[in-house]
Amino acid sequence: MRMETKENTCKNFINNTWVDSASEEIIKSINPANKEEVVGYVQKSTAVDLEKAVQAAYKAKKNWRKLGQVERGQLLFKVANILEENLNDIAETMTREMGKSLPEAKGETARGVAILRYYAGEGMRKEGDLIPSTDQAALMFTKRTPLGVVGVITPWNFPVAIPIWKIAPALVYGNTVVFKPATEAAVTAAKVVDCFAKAGLPEGVLNFVTGTGSVIGQKLIDHPLLNAITFTGSETVGEGVAKSAAARGIKFQLEMGGKNPVIVTEDADLDAAVEAVISGAFRSTGQKCTASSRVIIESGVYDAFKEKLIQETKKITVGPGLNEGIWMGPCASESQFKTVLEYIEKGKAEGASLIYGGEPLTTGEYVKGFFVSPTIFENVTVDMTIAQEEIFGPVIALFKADNLEEAIALANNTKYGLSASIFTTNIANLLEFIDEVDAGLVRINAESAGVELQAPFGGMKASSTGSREQGEAAKEFFTSIKTVFIKG
Ligand SMILES: NC(=O)C1=CN([C@@H]2O[C@H](COP(=O)(O)OP(=O)(O)OC[C@H]3O[C@@H](n4cnc5c(N)ncnc54)[C@H](OP(=O)(O)O)[C@@H]3O)[C@@H](O)[C@H]2O)C=CC1
Ligand SMILES: O=C(O)CCC(=O)C(=O)O
User: Fold this and answer.
1) I want to staple 459 with a disulfide (CB 3.0 to 4.6 A). Which of 123, 259, 299, 440 is the partner?
2) Does residue 61 contact residue 146 with C-beta atoms inside 8 Å?
Protein backbone atom coordinates (compact mmCIF):
# COMPACT_ATOMS: atom_id res chain seq x y z
CA MET A 1 0.00 0.00 0.00
CA ARG A 2 1.28 3.47 -0.87
CA MET A 3 1.43 4.74 2.67
CA GLU A 4 4.31 2.29 3.38
CA THR A 5 7.86 3.51 2.87
CA LYS A 6 11.05 1.69 3.67
CA GLU A 7 10.63 2.89 7.23
CA ASN A 8 6.98 1.82 7.43
CA THR A 9 5.90 5.40 7.93
CA CYS A 10 2.28 6.29 7.35
CA LYS A 11 1.97 9.37 5.21
CA ASN A 12 -0.63 12.10 5.12
CA PHE A 13 -3.42 11.81 2.56
CA ILE A 14 -4.10 15.18 0.93
CA ASN A 15 -5.85 15.80 -2.39
CA ASN A 16 -5.95 12.04 -3.07
CA THR A 17 -2.19 11.62 -2.71
CA TRP A 18 -0.19 10.01 0.09
CA VAL A 19 2.38 12.69 0.91
CA ASP A 20 5.31 13.26 3.24
CA SER A 21 4.99 15.86 5.97
CA ALA A 22 6.93 19.11 5.77
CA SER A 23 8.66 17.96 8.98
CA GLU A 24 11.01 15.03 9.08
CA GLU A 25 10.01 14.09 12.60
CA ILE A 26 8.31 10.79 13.21
CA ILE A 27 6.71 9.16 16.24
CA LYS A 28 7.04 5.42 16.88
CA SER A 29 3.82 3.48 17.23
CA ILE A 30 4.60 0.48 19.40
CA ASN A 31 2.79 -2.71 20.33
CA PRO A 32 1.52 -2.34 23.93
CA ALA A 33 1.80 -6.13 24.36
CA ASN A 34 5.49 -5.94 23.41
CA LYS A 35 7.04 -2.51 23.62
CA GLU A 36 10.05 -3.65 21.57
CA GLU A 37 7.88 -4.17 18.49
CA VAL A 38 7.39 -1.10 16.30
CA VAL A 39 4.06 -1.34 14.48
CA GLY A 40 4.79 1.68 12.31
CA TYR A 41 5.92 5.28 12.30
CA VAL A 42 3.64 8.28 12.39
CA GLN A 43 4.61 11.64 10.93
CA LYS A 44 4.67 14.58 13.30
CA SER A 45 3.07 16.88 10.74
CA THR A 46 3.24 20.65 10.82
CA ALA A 47 0.92 23.62 10.39
CA VAL A 48 1.96 23.69 6.70
CA ASP A 49 0.63 20.15 6.15
CA LEU A 50 -2.60 20.96 7.95
CA GLU A 51 -3.07 24.09 5.87
CA LYS A 52 -2.77 22.07 2.65
CA ALA A 53 -5.33 19.56 3.90
CA VAL A 54 -7.88 22.22 4.89
CA GLN A 55 -7.37 24.09 1.60
CA ALA A 56 -7.90 20.83 -0.31
CA ALA A 57 -11.13 20.11 1.58
CA TYR A 58 -12.31 23.69 1.04
CA LYS A 59 -11.64 23.53 -2.69
CA ALA A 60 -13.45 20.19 -3.03
CA LYS A 61 -16.61 21.08 -1.14
CA LYS A 62 -18.69 22.61 -3.93
CA ASN A 63 -18.28 19.77 -6.43
CA TRP A 64 -18.79 17.16 -3.72
CA ARG A 65 -22.07 18.78 -2.74
CA LYS A 66 -23.11 18.98 -6.38
CA LEU A 67 -22.32 15.30 -6.98
CA GLY A 68 -25.49 14.50 -5.05
CA GLN A 69 -26.38 12.23 -2.18
CA VAL A 70 -27.11 9.14 -4.29
CA GLU A 71 -23.66 9.13 -5.92
CA ARG A 72 -21.97 9.85 -2.60
CA GLY A 73 -23.78 6.86 -1.09
CA GLN A 74 -22.62 4.62 -3.94
CA LEU A 75 -19.01 5.57 -3.20
CA LEU A 76 -19.48 4.59 0.44
CA PHE A 77 -20.72 1.15 -0.65
CA LYS A 78 -17.39 0.75 -2.46
CA VAL A 79 -15.45 1.80 0.66
CA ALA A 80 -17.42 -0.78 2.69
CA ASN A 81 -16.49 -3.56 0.26
CA ILE A 82 -12.82 -2.60 0.32
CA LEU A 83 -12.79 -2.46 4.12
CA GLU A 84 -14.42 -5.89 4.22
CA GLU A 85 -11.76 -7.31 1.87
CA ASN A 86 -9.06 -5.93 4.18
CA LEU A 87 -10.79 -6.81 7.44
CA ASN A 88 -8.21 -9.32 8.69
CA ASP A 89 -5.21 -7.11 7.99
CA ILE A 90 -6.81 -4.03 9.55
CA ALA A 91 -8.00 -5.93 12.62
CA GLU A 92 -4.55 -7.44 13.13
CA THR A 93 -2.94 -4.00 12.85
CA MET A 94 -5.41 -2.67 15.41
CA THR A 95 -4.57 -5.45 17.88
CA ARG A 96 -0.85 -4.89 17.40
CA GLU A 97 -1.14 -1.15 17.69
CA MET A 98 -3.56 -0.63 20.60
CA GLY A 99 -3.86 -4.05 22.19
CA LYS A 100 -7.51 -5.14 22.03
CA SER A 101 -7.97 -8.87 21.42
CA LEU A 102 -8.11 -10.00 17.80
CA PRO A 103 -11.75 -11.19 17.95
CA GLU A 104 -12.75 -7.78 19.30
CA ALA A 105 -10.69 -6.00 16.63
CA LYS A 106 -12.36 -8.12 13.93
CA GLY A 107 -15.75 -7.34 15.43
CA GLU A 108 -14.98 -3.63 15.41
CA THR A 109 -13.82 -3.70 11.78
CA ALA A 110 -16.97 -5.60 10.76
CA ARG A 111 -18.94 -2.93 12.61
CA GLY A 112 -17.08 -0.33 10.50
CA VAL A 113 -18.26 -2.13 7.35
CA ALA A 114 -21.85 -2.15 8.63
CA ILE A 115 -21.70 1.58 9.53
CA LEU A 116 -20.45 2.39 6.03
CA ARG A 117 -23.31 0.40 4.47
CA TYR A 118 -25.83 2.12 6.72
CA TYR A 119 -24.68 5.58 5.59
CA ALA A 120 -24.26 4.42 2.00
CA GLY A 121 -27.98 3.54 2.17
CA GLU A 122 -28.70 7.08 3.39
CA GLY A 123 -27.65 8.18 -0.09
CA MET A 124 -31.07 6.99 -1.30
CA ARG A 125 -33.09 8.53 1.51
CA LYS A 126 -34.87 11.86 1.71
CA GLU A 127 -33.05 15.17 1.89
CA GLY A 128 -35.95 17.17 3.24
CA ASP A 129 -39.69 17.39 3.96
CA LEU A 130 -42.65 18.92 2.23
CA ILE A 131 -44.41 21.30 4.64
CA PRO A 132 -47.97 22.55 4.00
CA SER A 133 -48.17 26.30 3.42
CA THR A 134 -51.07 28.58 4.40
CA ASP A 135 -50.72 30.05 0.92
CA GLN A 136 -52.55 27.79 -1.57
CA ALA A 137 -50.33 29.04 -4.40
CA ALA A 138 -47.04 28.24 -2.69
CA LEU A 139 -44.78 25.23 -2.27
CA MET A 140 -42.83 25.03 0.98
CA PHE A 141 -40.21 22.44 1.78
CA THR A 142 -36.99 21.87 3.69
CA LYS A 143 -33.73 20.92 2.03
CA ARG A 144 -30.82 19.53 4.00
CA THR A 145 -27.57 21.15 3.03
CA PRO A 146 -24.00 20.21 4.01
CA LEU A 147 -22.03 22.32 6.48
CA GLY A 148 -18.87 22.50 4.35
CA VAL A 149 -15.49 21.46 5.75
CA VAL A 150 -15.73 19.22 8.81
CA GLY A 151 -12.85 18.43 11.18
CA VAL A 152 -12.79 14.91 12.66
CA ILE A 153 -10.64 14.24 15.75
CA THR A 154 -10.72 10.70 17.12
CA PRO A 155 -9.34 8.67 20.04
CA TRP A 156 -7.33 5.43 20.03
CA ASN A 157 -9.84 3.10 21.70
CA PHE A 158 -11.98 2.43 18.59
CA PRO A 159 -9.55 3.28 15.78
CA VAL A 160 -11.84 1.95 13.03
CA ALA A 161 -15.43 2.37 14.25
CA ILE A 162 -15.23 5.92 15.64
CA PRO A 163 -13.52 7.50 12.58
CA ILE A 164 -16.02 5.72 10.33
CA TRP A 165 -19.09 6.73 12.32
CA LYS A 166 -17.98 10.34 11.96
CA ILE A 167 -16.53 10.34 8.42
CA ALA A 168 -19.26 8.27 6.69
CA PRO A 169 -22.20 10.53 7.64
CA ALA A 170 -20.10 13.66 7.10
CA LEU A 171 -19.39 12.53 3.54
CA VAL A 172 -22.76 11.14 2.53
CA TYR A 173 -24.50 14.35 3.63
CA GLY A 174 -22.12 16.29 1.39
CA ASN A 175 -19.32 17.61 3.60
CA THR A 176 -15.60 17.34 2.95
CA VAL A 177 -13.38 16.16 5.77
CA VAL A 178 -10.02 16.75 7.43
CA PHE A 179 -9.32 13.80 9.72
CA LYS A 180 -6.77 13.90 12.55
CA PRO A 181 -6.48 10.46 14.21
CA ALA A 182 -5.14 9.65 17.68
CA THR A 183 -1.39 9.27 17.38
CA GLU A 184 -1.58 6.04 19.39
CA ALA A 185 -3.67 4.35 16.68
CA ALA A 186 -2.67 6.30 13.55
CA VAL A 187 -1.26 3.31 11.66
CA THR A 188 -4.64 1.56 11.85
CA ALA A 189 -6.42 4.80 10.94
CA ALA A 190 -4.21 5.20 7.86
CA LYS A 191 -5.32 1.76 6.67
CA VAL A 192 -8.95 2.82 7.03
CA VAL A 193 -8.26 5.98 5.01
CA ASP A 194 -6.61 3.83 2.36
CA CYS A 195 -9.97 2.05 1.86
CA PHE A 196 -11.58 5.43 1.11
CA ALA A 197 -8.64 6.29 -1.16
CA LYS A 198 -9.03 3.06 -3.15
CA ALA A 199 -12.77 3.62 -3.60
CA GLY A 200 -11.95 6.63 -5.78
CA LEU A 201 -13.35 9.61 -3.91
CA PRO A 202 -12.84 12.90 -5.78
CA GLU A 203 -9.71 14.88 -4.88
CA GLY A 204 -9.76 16.70 -1.54
CA VAL A 205 -12.95 15.11 -0.23
CA LEU A 206 -11.20 13.20 2.57
CA ASN A 207 -7.87 14.41 3.91
CA PHE A 208 -5.81 12.77 6.63
CA VAL A 209 -3.11 14.46 8.69
CA THR A 210 -1.23 12.77 11.52
CA GLY A 211 0.60 14.63 14.28
CA THR A 212 0.23 15.76 17.84
CA GLY A 213 -3.06 16.89 19.29
CA SER A 214 -1.56 20.11 20.53
CA VAL A 215 -0.35 21.12 17.03
CA ILE A 216 -2.48 19.42 14.37
CA GLY A 217 -5.60 18.98 16.52
CA GLN A 218 -5.52 22.52 17.85
CA LYS A 219 -4.75 24.13 14.48
CA LEU A 220 -7.57 22.17 12.90
CA ILE A 221 -10.07 23.35 15.50
CA ASP A 222 -8.89 26.95 15.13
CA HIS A 223 -8.81 26.97 11.33
CA PRO A 224 -10.99 29.78 9.89
CA LEU A 225 -12.13 27.62 6.93
CA LEU A 226 -13.53 24.91 9.19
CA ASN A 227 -17.35 24.81 9.40
CA ALA A 228 -17.77 22.14 12.10
CA ILE A 229 -15.79 19.85 14.36
CA THR A 230 -16.65 16.41 15.74
CA PHE A 231 -14.50 15.10 18.58
CA THR A 232 -14.29 12.00 20.79
CA GLY A 233 -11.75 11.86 23.59
CA SER A 234 -10.98 13.32 26.99
CA GLU A 235 -12.99 15.98 28.75
CA THR A 236 -10.01 18.31 29.02
CA VAL A 237 -9.43 18.42 25.29
CA GLY A 238 -13.19 18.45 24.65
CA GLU A 239 -13.56 21.63 26.68
CA GLY A 240 -10.93 23.34 24.53
CA VAL A 241 -12.70 22.20 21.35
CA ALA A 242 -15.99 23.62 22.64
CA LYS A 243 -14.49 26.98 23.60
CA SER A 244 -12.73 27.46 20.31
CA ALA A 245 -15.72 26.37 18.21
CA ALA A 246 -18.18 28.48 20.21
CA ALA A 247 -15.94 31.54 19.90
CA ARG A 248 -16.15 31.26 16.11
CA GLY A 249 -19.76 30.20 15.99
CA ILE A 250 -19.16 26.87 14.28
CA LYS A 251 -21.00 23.65 15.08
CA PHE A 252 -19.33 21.20 17.43
CA GLN A 253 -20.05 17.74 18.73
CA LEU A 254 -18.21 16.21 21.70
CA GLU A 255 -18.23 12.65 23.04
CA MET A 256 -16.19 12.40 26.22
CA GLY A 257 -16.12 10.32 29.35
CA GLY A 258 -18.38 8.01 31.27
CA LYS A 259 -18.58 6.49 34.75
CA ASN A 260 -21.25 4.04 33.80
CA PRO A 261 -23.29 2.27 36.50
CA VAL A 262 -24.92 -1.16 36.50
CA ILE A 263 -27.68 -1.75 39.05
CA VAL A 264 -28.41 -5.32 40.15
CA THR A 265 -31.73 -5.68 41.98
CA GLU A 266 -32.74 -8.53 44.31
CA ASP A 267 -34.94 -10.14 41.65
CA ALA A 268 -32.27 -10.04 38.90
CA ASP A 269 -30.88 -13.02 37.03
CA LEU A 270 -27.48 -12.95 38.77
CA ASP A 271 -25.68 -15.11 36.21
CA ALA A 272 -26.74 -12.80 33.40
CA ALA A 273 -25.77 -9.74 35.48
CA VAL A 274 -22.31 -11.14 36.24
CA GLU A 275 -21.70 -11.99 32.58
CA ALA A 276 -22.73 -8.48 31.51
CA VAL A 277 -20.65 -6.75 34.17
CA ILE A 278 -17.56 -8.74 33.16
CA SER A 279 -18.07 -8.00 29.50
CA GLY A 280 -18.99 -4.35 30.06
CA ALA A 281 -16.15 -3.66 32.48
CA PHE A 282 -13.23 -5.70 31.22
CA ARG A 283 -13.56 -6.12 27.45
CA SER A 284 -11.12 -3.85 25.61
CA THR A 285 -9.35 -3.68 28.99
CA GLY A 286 -12.04 -1.27 30.19
CA GLN A 287 -11.01 1.32 27.60
CA LYS A 288 -14.48 2.29 26.41
CA CYS A 289 -16.40 5.41 27.28
CA THR A 290 -19.38 3.07 27.77
CA ALA A 291 -17.47 0.65 30.05
CA SER A 292 -19.19 -0.40 33.29
CA SER A 293 -17.22 1.04 36.18
CA ARG A 294 -19.66 1.11 39.11
CA VAL A 295 -21.83 -1.84 40.12
CA ILE A 296 -24.62 -1.05 42.56
CA ILE A 297 -26.11 -4.17 44.13
CA GLU A 298 -29.16 -4.48 46.37
CA SER A 299 -28.09 -5.70 49.82
CA GLY A 300 -30.04 -8.98 49.72
CA VAL A 301 -28.00 -10.33 46.77
CA TYR A 302 -24.73 -8.47 47.38
CA ASP A 303 -22.71 -11.40 48.71
CA ALA A 304 -24.05 -13.90 46.18
CA PHE A 305 -23.35 -11.50 43.30
CA LYS A 306 -19.86 -10.65 44.56
CA GLU A 307 -18.91 -14.31 44.88
CA LYS A 308 -20.08 -15.17 41.38
CA LEU A 309 -18.35 -12.08 39.99
CA ILE A 310 -15.00 -13.03 41.52
CA GLN A 311 -15.36 -16.65 40.37
CA GLU A 312 -15.99 -15.56 36.77
CA THR A 313 -13.32 -12.84 36.79
CA LYS A 314 -10.75 -15.49 37.71
CA LYS A 315 -11.44 -17.17 34.35
CA ILE A 316 -10.33 -14.12 32.33
CA THR A 317 -7.23 -14.86 30.27
CA VAL A 318 -4.94 -11.84 30.00
CA GLY A 319 -2.19 -11.63 27.39
CA PRO A 320 -1.18 -10.39 23.93
CA GLY A 321 -4.38 -9.88 21.97
CA LEU A 322 -3.07 -11.79 18.94
CA ASN A 323 -2.64 -15.00 20.93
CA GLU A 324 -5.29 -17.69 20.69
CA GLY A 325 -7.62 -17.83 23.69
CA ILE A 326 -6.76 -14.39 25.07
CA TRP A 327 -9.79 -12.52 26.36
CA MET A 328 -8.21 -9.30 27.66
CA GLY A 329 -5.20 -7.53 26.16
CA PRO A 330 -2.88 -4.89 27.63
CA CYS A 331 -3.60 -1.23 28.31
CA ALA A 332 -3.18 0.66 25.04
CA SER A 333 -0.07 2.58 26.08
CA GLU A 334 2.42 3.07 28.86
CA SER A 335 0.73 6.28 29.95
CA GLN A 336 -2.68 4.56 30.10
CA PHE A 337 -1.07 1.70 32.09
CA LYS A 338 0.43 4.17 34.58
CA THR A 339 -2.86 6.04 34.90
CA VAL A 340 -4.74 2.83 35.70
CA LEU A 341 -2.17 1.83 38.33
CA GLU A 342 -2.34 5.31 39.88
CA TYR A 343 -6.13 5.00 40.19
CA ILE A 344 -5.76 1.59 41.85
CA GLU A 345 -3.29 3.07 44.35
CA LYS A 346 -5.65 6.00 45.01
CA GLY A 347 -8.50 3.55 45.63
CA LYS A 348 -6.43 1.74 48.25
CA ALA A 349 -5.12 4.95 49.83
CA GLU A 350 -8.62 6.44 50.14
CA GLY A 351 -9.82 3.35 52.01
CA ALA A 352 -11.61 1.17 49.44
CA SER A 353 -11.09 -2.60 49.85
CA LEU A 354 -9.31 -4.31 46.98
CA ILE A 355 -10.97 -7.70 46.65
CA TYR A 356 -9.57 -8.90 43.32
CA GLY A 357 -6.56 -8.12 41.09
CA GLY A 358 -5.09 -4.65 41.34
CA GLU A 359 -1.63 -5.56 40.15
CA PRO A 360 0.52 -4.83 37.15
CA LEU A 361 1.47 -8.09 35.42
CA THR A 362 5.19 -7.83 34.82
CA THR A 363 6.71 -11.29 34.71
CA GLY A 364 6.97 -14.09 32.11
CA GLU A 365 4.98 -13.40 28.95
CA TYR A 366 3.89 -10.04 30.39
CA VAL A 367 7.35 -8.59 30.82
CA LYS A 368 7.41 -6.46 27.67
CA GLY A 369 3.85 -5.20 27.81
CA PHE A 370 1.47 -2.95 29.71
CA PHE A 371 -0.67 -5.60 31.36
CA VAL A 372 -2.80 -5.19 34.44
CA SER A 373 -5.13 -7.72 36.05
CA PRO A 374 -8.90 -7.15 36.13
CA THR A 375 -9.56 -5.32 39.38
CA ILE A 376 -12.50 -5.19 41.80
CA PHE A 377 -12.93 -2.85 44.77
CA GLU A 378 -15.65 -2.83 47.44
CA ASN A 379 -16.45 -0.56 50.38
CA VAL A 380 -16.22 2.34 47.96
CA THR A 381 -17.86 5.62 49.01
CA VAL A 382 -19.18 8.25 46.62
CA ASP A 383 -16.54 10.81 47.57
CA MET A 384 -13.64 8.55 46.52
CA THR A 385 -11.71 9.27 43.33
CA ILE A 386 -12.45 5.80 41.92
CA ALA A 387 -16.17 6.47 42.39
CA GLN A 388 -16.09 9.72 40.44
CA GLU A 389 -13.33 9.83 37.80
CA GLU A 390 -13.18 7.91 34.55
CA ILE A 391 -10.36 5.36 34.91
CA PHE A 392 -10.41 3.90 31.36
CA GLY A 393 -9.04 0.62 32.62
CA PRO A 394 -10.27 -2.78 33.90
CA VAL A 395 -11.34 -1.53 37.33
CA ILE A 396 -14.77 -1.71 38.96
CA ALA A 397 -16.17 -0.46 42.23
CA LEU A 398 -18.97 -2.32 44.03
CA PHE A 399 -21.59 -0.45 46.05
CA LYS A 400 -24.40 -1.77 48.26
CA ALA A 401 -27.88 -0.19 48.16
CA ASP A 402 -30.89 -0.89 50.37
CA ASN A 403 -33.46 -0.26 47.66
CA LEU A 404 -33.90 0.90 44.08
CA GLU A 405 -34.28 4.56 45.03
CA GLU A 406 -30.91 4.53 46.78
CA ALA A 407 -29.37 2.59 43.87
CA ILE A 408 -30.56 5.16 41.32
CA ALA A 409 -29.33 8.04 43.53
CA LEU A 410 -25.91 6.36 43.62
CA ALA A 411 -26.00 5.77 39.86
CA ASN A 412 -26.67 9.48 39.25
CA ASN A 413 -23.99 10.63 41.67
CA THR A 414 -21.30 11.57 39.11
CA LYS A 415 -20.83 14.39 36.66
CA TYR A 416 -21.20 11.92 33.77
CA GLY A 417 -24.30 10.48 32.12
CA LEU A 418 -23.37 8.33 29.17
CA SER A 419 -24.64 4.77 29.65
CA ALA A 420 -26.48 3.08 32.54
CA SER A 421 -27.73 -0.44 32.91
CA ILE A 422 -30.05 -2.34 35.25
CA PHE A 423 -30.55 -6.05 35.81
CA THR A 424 -34.07 -6.72 37.07
CA THR A 425 -37.09 -8.89 36.33
CA ASN A 426 -39.52 -6.38 37.81
CA ILE A 427 -41.34 -4.13 35.34
CA ALA A 428 -41.97 -1.39 37.90
CA ASN A 429 -38.23 -1.28 38.64
CA LEU A 430 -37.23 -0.96 35.04
CA LEU A 431 -39.83 1.72 34.29
CA GLU A 432 -38.62 3.73 37.28
CA PHE A 433 -35.02 3.33 36.10
CA ILE A 434 -35.78 4.48 32.55
CA ASP A 435 -37.36 7.68 33.91
CA GLU A 436 -34.99 8.49 36.75
CA VAL A 437 -31.50 7.60 35.54
CA ASP A 438 -29.36 10.38 34.05
CA ALA A 439 -27.97 8.66 30.97
CA GLY A 440 -28.20 8.96 27.21
CA LEU A 441 -28.03 5.18 26.79
CA VAL A 442 -30.39 3.24 29.05
CA ARG A 443 -29.85 -0.51 29.02
CA ILE A 444 -32.18 -3.06 30.63
CA ASN A 445 -30.78 -6.55 31.26
CA ALA A 446 -27.91 -5.71 28.91
CA GLU A 447 -24.34 -4.53 29.41
CA SER A 448 -23.53 -0.83 29.40
CA ALA A 449 -21.24 -1.04 26.33
CA GLY A 450 -21.84 -2.24 22.79
CA VAL A 451 -24.22 0.16 21.12
CA GLU A 452 -26.05 -0.42 17.83
CA LEU A 453 -25.06 1.70 14.86
CA GLN A 454 -28.60 2.58 13.71
CA ALA A 455 -29.58 4.20 17.03
CA PRO A 456 -28.58 7.60 18.45
CA PHE A 457 -25.42 7.51 20.56
CA GLY A 458 -24.45 10.05 23.21
CA GLY A 459 -24.81 11.07 26.81
CA MET A 460 -26.10 13.60 29.30
CA LYS A 461 -24.26 15.95 31.69
CA ALA A 462 -20.47 16.08 31.14
CA SER A 463 -20.42 13.07 28.79
CA SER A 464 -21.52 14.74 25.58
CA THR A 465 -22.29 18.09 24.03
CA GLY A 466 -24.07 18.82 20.78
CA SER A 467 -26.37 16.56 18.83
CA ARG A 468 -26.17 12.76 19.03
CA GLU A 469 -23.94 10.63 16.80
CA GLN A 470 -24.87 7.58 14.70
CA GLY A 471 -28.14 6.41 13.20
CA GLU A 472 -30.40 9.07 11.79
CA ALA A 473 -29.26 11.48 14.52
CA ALA A 474 -25.99 12.07 12.65
CA LYS A 475 -27.95 13.99 10.02
CA GLU A 476 -28.78 16.67 12.60
CA PHE A 477 -25.12 17.41 13.16
CA PHE A 478 -23.76 17.09 9.64
CA THR A 479 -26.41 19.13 7.84
CA SER A 480 -28.14 22.45 8.10
CA ILE A 481 -31.75 23.04 7.01
CA LYS A 482 -32.92 25.48 4.37
CA THR A 483 -36.64 26.20 4.46
CA VAL A 484 -37.65 26.93 0.88
CA PHE A 485 -40.83 28.84 -0.02
CA ILE A 486 -41.81 29.01 -3.68
CA LYS A 487 -44.65 31.23 -4.75
CA GLY A 488 -46.24 30.27 -8.05
N1 LIG B 1 -14.74 9.01 25.29
C2 LIG B 1 -13.82 8.21 24.81
O3 LIG B 1 -14.12 7.34 24.04
C4 LIG B 1 -12.41 8.43 25.16
C5 LIG B 1 -12.05 8.97 26.38
N6 LIG B 1 -10.75 9.14 26.67
C7 LIG B 1 -10.39 9.64 28.01
O8 LIG B 1 -9.31 10.53 27.89
C9 LIG B 1 -8.18 10.07 28.64
C10 LIG B 1 -6.91 10.46 27.93
O11 LIG B 1 -6.82 9.86 26.65
P12 LIG B 1 -6.15 10.63 25.44
O13 LIG B 1 -5.89 9.77 24.31
O14 LIG B 1 -4.98 11.38 25.97
O15 LIG B 1 -7.35 11.61 25.01
P16 LIG B 1 -7.24 12.98 24.28
O17 LIG B 1 -8.50 13.72 24.49
O18 LIG B 1 -5.97 13.64 24.63
O19 LIG B 1 -7.11 12.54 22.74
C20 LIG B 1 -8.20 12.38 21.87
C21 LIG B 1 -7.87 13.02 20.52
O22 LIG B 1 -7.68 14.43 20.68
C23 LIG B 1 -6.39 14.81 20.19
N24 LIG B 1 -5.91 15.95 20.96
C25 LIG B 1 -5.10 15.96 22.06
N26 LIG B 1 -4.88 17.23 22.47
C27 LIG B 1 -5.54 18.04 21.61
C28 LIG B 1 -5.71 19.45 21.51
N29 LIG B 1 -5.15 20.29 22.36
N30 LIG B 1 -6.47 19.92 20.50
C31 LIG B 1 -7.07 19.09 19.64
N32 LIG B 1 -6.94 17.75 19.67
C33 LIG B 1 -6.20 17.23 20.65
C34 LIG B 1 -5.56 13.56 20.34
O35 LIG B 1 -4.39 13.61 19.56
P36 LIG B 1 -3.07 12.80 20.03
O37 LIG B 1 -3.44 11.37 20.03
O38 LIG B 1 -2.09 13.13 18.98
O39 LIG B 1 -2.73 13.32 21.38
C40 LIG B 1 -6.56 12.51 19.90
O41 LIG B 1 -6.68 12.50 18.51
C42 LIG B 1 -8.43 8.59 28.78
O43 LIG B 1 -7.78 8.07 29.89
C44 LIG B 1 -9.92 8.54 28.89
O45 LIG B 1 -10.31 8.79 30.22
C46 LIG B 1 -9.78 8.80 25.77
C47 LIG B 1 -10.07 8.26 24.56
C48 LIG B 1 -11.43 8.01 24.19
O1 LIG C 1 -19.75 0.78 23.56
C2 LIG C 1 -19.45 0.96 22.41
O3 LIG C 1 -19.52 0.08 21.56
C4 LIG C 1 -18.94 2.31 21.93
C5 LIG C 1 -17.99 2.89 22.94
C6 LIG C 1 -17.40 4.17 22.51
O7 LIG C 1 -17.90 4.83 21.65
C8 LIG C 1 -16.18 4.67 23.12
O9 LIG C 1 -15.65 4.06 24.04
O10 LIG C 1 -15.68 5.72 22.66
Assistant:
1) 440
2) yes
What's the CATH number where 309 sits? 3.40.309.10
Same domain, 152 and 290: no
Spatial distance between the Cα atoms of 347 and 341, rounded to a whole number of angstroms? 10
- Supply the residue whose CA is at minimum distance from atom 7 of ligand 2: 289
Q: Which structural domain, as residue segments, surrounds residue 141? A: 5-256+463-487
- Tally of domains in the chain: 2
> 181 CA distance to ligand 1 centroid (A)?
10
Active site annotation includes 365 = no
Pocket test residue of 255, 289, 292 for ligand 2, highest count of atoms within 8 A of CB: 289
Does 218 lie in the same domain as 84?
yes
Task: Say what the pLDDT of residue 7 is.
Answer: 65
CA distances from 353 to 173, 309, 380 (A): 51, 15, 7
Q: Residues 451-484: pLDDT tens digits? A: 899 999 999 999 999 889 999 999 999 999 999 9
Ligand 1 atom with the shortest distance to the CA of 339: 43
Q: At 126, which amino acid appears? A: K
- One domain, residues 479 and 366: no
Single out the catalytic residue among 97, 104, 122, 255: 255
For ligand 2, say whether the CB of 450 is within 6 Å of any of its atoms: yes
